[in-house]
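Exercise: predict the structure of this protein bound to pyrazine-2-carboxylic acid.
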Amino acid sequence: MRVSSTDVLIVVDVQNDFCTGGALAVPGGEKIIPAINRIAGKFENIVLTQDWHPEDHVSFASNHPHKRPYDMIELSYGSQVLWPDHCVQGSAGAEFHRALETTPASLVLRKGNHRDIDSYSAFYENDHKTPTGLAGYLRERELKTLFFVGLAFDFCVRYSAEDAHQAGFEAVVIEEACRGLDVDGSVAATHHSLKSLGIPTVGIEAFF
Ligand code: VGL
Ligand code: ZN
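Solution:
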């Protein structure tokens, strides 16, 4: 596969808190970084996303009396999993993992910064209405095919790829350069959902 000038690599949430030792560690999260750096070398256009929550964020179990991480609650926009505190704005956990090559990226998009709403997708917050501005950025730059890598496969990668597809972009997931949290079968649900939407997954060898 030849990467073209209208292709963009979207690197989702490769932050310390999602890697080994982090507050919401994805098993083996940091193991995908060498592959991401290699793939990134092929792309002219790279966007990084960064989960970026205030301390009093609604998705943190610690902000709800008697709740524990991985409990579910109902919010105005639907069900929300409660997480351990993670990716707090300005904290070391919110920084990109130091092995990630960040220099070539043209945009760092922060999400999850509104206290009352979580944002898994890089395009819309969890109400599926509040835009982050990413679609406008990509359209204005006439970028058409979006390749997704990063963490977590079954949350932010999944919802970002699905919203991209929904917004009329071509979305492709490079699954070997992703890792999942797997909460209650969420990895299997992601495979099923991507397949039913016709969002392809490709191996990394396709790029070399
Ligand atoms: C994520 C759970 C909570 C992710 C972010 O990046 O997939 N998951 N916040
Ligand atoms: Zn988060």
